[in-house]
Write a structure and sequence with these properties.
Layout: E1 4-7, H1 12-22, E2 28-31, H2 47-62, E3 66-75, H3 96-106, E4 116-126, E5 135-145, E6 161-163, E7 168-169, H4 175-181, H5 183-198
Parallel strand pairs: 1-2, 1-3
Antiparallel strand pairs: 3-4, 4-5, 5-6, 6-7
Helix pairs in contact: 1-5, 4-5
Active site: 70 (proton acceptor)
Binding site for Mg(2+): 41, 70
Protein name: dITP/XTP pyrophosphatase
Length: 199
């Protein structure tokens, strides 16, 4: 197995989290942007389909093993939205703050007991672009939506995602605390177990 792999993302927050989580395996992650590879379209309706598309694109363009992450927030009161459209909830060119504001607007008036939500992360690892048996791992992180942002760490919806076991937002957790319990951390633990079995 090659030590270097391409992370099929240009999202700095995702890349930082994945790099930290992969370090115990001795892998050297590099973002696709650092290799001159642009983002691919995400036309699919599931996290799994989008992650596979992104991983194949990155592996094909670089010739390296690829790790893709497709993740998002599913809010119970919104029928699972924003879901696969989490990064574009407020529009195609939306910033994290735009998306948070759109979510808070959509949740205005929703009572506390109906503010449940889950972050989902699907990680796909391809050994090469035409890998017929990709490793697919899913992580889920249950919580609820706060009424206003708290904390300045993390990225995306972290400031409005309440972590019940800690009584704070995901943006108020340290990076190591978040990595140990987040959807991405959970999916990566499963992936690491599978990769260790291949070495």
């Amino acid at each position: 197995m090659s030590n270097q792999l391409v992370i099929a993302s240009n999202n700095k927050g995702k890349i930082a989290e994945l790099t930290e989580l992969l370090s115990p395996l001795g892998m050297t992650p590099v973002s696709q942007g650092d290799l001159g590879v642009g983002e691919t379209e995400e036309p699919a309706v599931t996290f799994v389909e989008n992650a596979i598309l992104k991983a194949r694109h990155a592996a094909r363009e670089t010739g390296l093993p690829a790790l893709a992450d497709d993740s998002g927030l599913a809010v119970d009161a919104l029928g699972g939205r924003p879901g696969v459209r989490s990064a574009r909830f407020a529009g195609a060119a939306a910033t994290d703050q735009d998306n948070v504001n759109a979510l808070l607007d959509a949740m205005a008036g929703v009572p506390e007991e109906q503010r449940g939500a889950q972050f989902h992360c699907v990680l796909v690892y391809l050994r090469h672009a035409d890998d017929p048996t990709p490793i697919v791992c899913h992580g889920r992180w249950p919580g609820s939506i706060l009424r206003s942002p708290r904390g300045d760490g993390g990225f995306g919806y972290d400031p409005v995602f309440l972590v019940p076991e800690h009584g704070c937002s995901a943006a108020e957790l340290s990076r190591s605390e978040k990595s140990s319990i987040s959807h991405r951390g959970r999916a990566l633990k499963i992936l690491m177990e599978q990769l260790k079995a291949e070495v």
